[in-house]
Design a protein that fits this description.
- The protein is 33% helix and 21% strand.
- The chain is an alpha/beta fold and 156 residues long.
- It starts with 14 loop residues before the first strand and ends with a helix.
Length: 156
């Protein structure tokens, strides 16, 4: 497994396209919007929570209810998330992004990711990103919860 360097970037105004509108996409979109990204969600079925985020973030969030169309990702997009429930579609999205030089995250295959999304701990004006080198998401989740609890107890 490759090791990824943690990096924090300013997402304000960055164009992020998200394919898929399930629970993983919802979690990613929520964070991206909170950090100022301009998000376009493309999926044949859109969950109510994504629709609510669009309504709450007019001008920052766009929802297109349709399937991925090969060749559609414009070069001006800064990042892409392939989070559909179809691994083949996600792989085709990754291939297109690689051809166009756009960093991509494949939600169901870390070997195709140019970047990861860490679990976020946001307490007391601190932002901490946590990920694992072995892909153990449950371990990360447990650690983050302990960290949140500790930070709430401490007076930094």
């Amino acid at each position: 497994m490759s090791r990824y360097f943690p990096i924090y970037i300013n997402l304000a105004g960055k164009k992020v396209w998200v394919y898929g509108a399930g629970r993983i996409a919802l979690r990613r979109v929520t964070g991206l919007l909170r950090f100022g990204a301009s998000v376009t969600v493309i999926a044949p079925e859109i969950c109510e929570e994504i629709r609510a985020l669009q309504a709450q973030n007019t001008g920052q969030a766009v929802v297109l209810q349709r399937i991925y169309q090969s060749g559609e990702i414009p070069k001006g997009v800064d990042f892409v998330l392939a989070a559909t429930n179809d691994r083949k579609v996600n792989s085709r999205i990754c291939e297109e992004c690689r051809r166009k030089g756009i960093p991509v995250n494949h939600a169901s295959d870390s070997s195709q990711c140019d970047f990861y999304f860490p679990a976020l701990v946001e307490e007391q004006k601190l932002v901490i990103g946590v990920t694992s080198t072995d892909g153990d998401h449950k371990k990360v989740s447990r650690f983050c919860e302990k960290l949140r609890q500790q930070m709430r107890q401490d007076d930094l």
